[in-house]
């Protein structure tokens, strides 16, 4: 746990982020980042599809501070949706609102999202709005609700179980395609559960809550005990495999991913790509101390 605050601190370091763009996929990052181009991402997704896995791709980015950067990021999202359609891979799109200008101008972000979700609906695809830190939570949900008035079936978001508000948010979003996660940001005790067991318990509770409401549920975890409990619960409650899916990160627990797919469950892999990979990578290292081994292997391979 000592390492988590350090990696979260490093993830926000703009100097290191700029340096990482020059370094390329080093420090072990190439093991968990699909590449830097859209074509790299499509190749990685095709390889996953060949193993019975589906995917969601994310053009990673941090520190968007100008209108021009937000528009460029939106264009990448549109190009990615086009590439998914043209290649025929089984894949959705994930994105962050701050990449699309939420911290620059809300209306800019909303208009970017309208174009992206509209294109996804036109192509028969789906867009997942990743949840960021608690400061952006309500803004994200408000924008989601606006988008769903126009595109009710083409956009969803993420709920983080460690936030005390999680259960109420799941209630409010009944019928929405949600990805449920434990939570990866460092949040104060006033708004977030700090104890690991309590987080796990709340995570399982909101998973069951959303499933029992009949809503499509994406269970995003590498925790095999949670996965086994969800399988058992769904079997006992008669919840069909078509109502939920499991999700994991690219480069992690590959054998488990393939095993889940072979069991007949939908197994979706979150595939990040792009030159702005540094912040994403640091947060993955913060989540689990075991992930530091990727850094060591990456450095030793040079």
Automatic annotation (TrEMBL):
Keyword annotations of the record: FAD, Flavoprotein, Nucleotide-binding, Oxidoreductase, Proline metabolism
Catalytic activity: L-proline + a quinone = (S)-1-pyrroline-5-carboxylate + a quinol + H(+)
Single GO term (MF): proline dehydrogenase activity
Residues involved in FAD binding: 131, 160, 182-184, 196, 221-222
Pathway assigned in UniProt: Amino-acid degradation; L-proline degradation into L-glutamate; L-glutamate from L-proline: step 1/2
Cofactors, names only: FAD
Native species: Alkalihalophilus pseudofirmus (strain ATCC BAA-2126 / JCM 17055 / OF4)
Entry protein name: proline dehydrogenase
EC number from the UniProt entry: 1.5.5.2
Proline dehydrogenase domain boundaries: 44-295
Cofactor note: Binds 1 FAD per subunit.
A UniProt-annotated Pfam family: Pro_dh
Gene3D superfamilies: 3.20.20.220
Record flagged with keyword Nuclease: no
Binding site for substrate: 96, 283-284
InterPro entries: FAD-linked_oxidoreductase-like (IPR029041), PRODH_bac_arc (IPR008219), Proline_DH_dom (IPR002872), Proline_oxidase (IPR015659)
Broad EC category: oxidoreductase
GO biological process assignments: L-proline catabolic process to L-glutamate
